[in-house]
Amino acid sequence: MHDLVSRTIEKFLDAESVPLQAGADMLSPGQMLRDAALHLGKPVDELIEDLGAWLVRQDEIWRLLRFCGRDFLDFLLRLDELPERIRLVTDDLSVPEIALSRSDDGLLWVTLSDGPAAWTALLSGLLRAMADDYGALCVITPGEGGLCIDVSDSSFAAARTFHLSSKAHAP
């Protein structure tokens, strides 16, 4: 698991043009992110949120996520399936369980079971990118034990076209 996560972080930092220090491949994933955040002058949680958004831009991951729902609200309702979908790809990663609830005022709350706090930041970035992908206008705010999602307009913009196969519209 350490190798998969480290390689993903290395690819993310390279894509974001963040130079890695010599021997960075020997650092833990957390240390790589702390060093990169220090270099960029931003909080680690913010960098991890950016990593979550970057993951959505990876075609294979995007397809796995878009397969979860026809629109953003449907995607959110199936968010509890995400840990199991990740286990389809790799069973080496310990993913916290995800639960969705709706408060009386209509806000959606995503809570994560026990796990590192970094999962909340990663999920925040992932949800932000998926909301954009689906064309939904929402505000995602970290809160006690999870994220608060206020969807103001689920069809604010045109959603990105999704085909199950990447070859569906090949020239």
UniProtKB/TrEMBL annotation:
Domain of life the protein comes from: Bacteria
Pfam families xrefs: HNOB
InterPro entries: H-NOX_domain_sf, Heme_NO-bd, NO_sig/Golgi_transp_ligand-bd
Residue ranges occupied by any Heme NO-binding domain in the UniProt entry: 31-131
UniProt GO MF annotations: heme binding
Protein name: Heme NO-binding domain-containing protein
Species of provenance: Paracoccus haematequi
Phylogenetic classification of the source organism: Bacteria, Pseudomonadati, Pseudomonadota, Alphaproteobacteria, Rhodobacterales
